[in-house]
Amino acid sequence: MRTTFDVIDALTGYQPAAAIAAACRVGLFDVLGPGPRTPDEVAAAAGLAPKPTAALLAALTALGLLADGNVPTPLARRLASDGDLAPLVRKEAFFASVWTDLDPTLRTGLPRLAPWKERLRTEPEVARDFLAALAVLARETGPDLTVLPEFAPGRRVLDVGGALGSYAVPLAGAGAHVTLVDLPEVAVWARATVPDTVEVREADVLAVPACGVEPGSADTVLLSHLLHDLTDEQCATVLAEARKALAPGGSVVVIEIPGDAPGPLGPLFDLMMQIETPGRARKAVELADLLVSSGLRGVREAAYPRPVVVLIGESD
Ligand SMILES: C[S@@+](CC[C@H](N)C(=O)[O-])C[C@H]1O[C@@H](n2cnc3c(N)ncnc32)[C@H](O)[C@@H]1O
Asked: What is the pLDDT of residues 22-52, one digit of tens each?
């Protein structure tokens, strides 16, 4: 930041996020379109007060979500309650509420949120929304893994911490034989979400051998956005168990947003991890070191544009 205006922009960055989240919560995107509507008509349809609704509509138009006459753009339609981007809005609105109170984490060094396993029991809807949002992020912004030989049709892929099938679904769709492993609560949700072609198993991969599958039964183990949730010791455990799951010559593939991703993204993602998990967003070189230390050979980065890092290493 170089000017006072840059600081002011950063300080008011909460406003677009809050406006979009509120518009979703009050169902504004549900009552719009397809033709033009006056602010009063929109307010009446949504059961809202006319004056602030007019201001919100003008703000959403200025943000590029609405066209003239309060006609929703294709993106705005995807923000309706049944739209595919709705879980993403709820995820970020939840984290915005947490980020307004970072002080306890800074003072204690402890995550602001309860451990993930506890959150699965105490706030299952928030947890499920979070995982649904990760599937949206994978689809919209994630690397296309189907182009890698490690995920070629017929390969036996073990997706460790696979959530609701962010990567398992497209990989199975492209012909890989995918087994998704996740914690019991998540496995129940995954079974209701993924096609029958994906096998879903439940396991705490920090507590069972070979990540919960038969040793030597996978050609490729995928660890996508899992290592940042874990301490260095836990990463070493998961990587060791992933290697046991692999057939001779199999590969481990790691996807992460590294702490040194360009601009503020990497450091802010690391701060997010401090609030959310006992882990951290490691730099790309630190991630590669973790793979090398676990005994994987030929560790290399696949050619995807940053911010994402995709690392591959082979087992003996
Ligand atoms: C940040 S999410 C990443 C989800 C998915 N791989 C993706 O890239 O979108 C981490 C996933 O790992 C799972 N997970 C965390 N700890 C786990 C453990 N000990 N055993 C099995 N799964 C675990 C979580 O339940 C969650 O689904």
From this structure: 999 999 999 998 999 999 999 999 999 999 9
Nearest CA to ligand 1 atom 11: 161
Kindly state the tokens that stand for 205: 């991969």
Q: All domains of the chain, ordered by start, with CATH? A: 4-77 (1.10.10.10), 133-314 (3.40.50.150)
The number of the ligand 1 atom at minimal distance from the alpha carbon of 230 is 16
Give 163 Cα–ligand 1 centroid separation in angstroms.
6
Mean pLDDT of 128-146: 98
| Closest residue to atom 8 of ligand 1, CA basis | 224
- Rounded CA-CA distance 316/143 in Å is 26
Cβ neighbors of 313 (< 8 A, separation 6 or more) are: 251, 252, 291, 292, 294, 296, 297, 298, 299, 300
- Per-residue confidence (pLDDT) for residue 197, from 0 to 100: 98
What is the rounded distance in angstroms from the CA atom of residue 250 to the CA atom of residue 98? 40
Whether the CA torsion 51, 55, 60, 61 is positive or negative: it is positive
Confidence of residue 211 (pLDDT cuts 50, 70, 90): very high
Task: Decide: 140 in ligand 1 pocket, CB within 6 A.
Answer: no
182 lines ligand 1 (CB under 6 A): yes
Q: What pLDDT, on a 0 to 100 scale, did the predictor assign at position 1?
A: 87
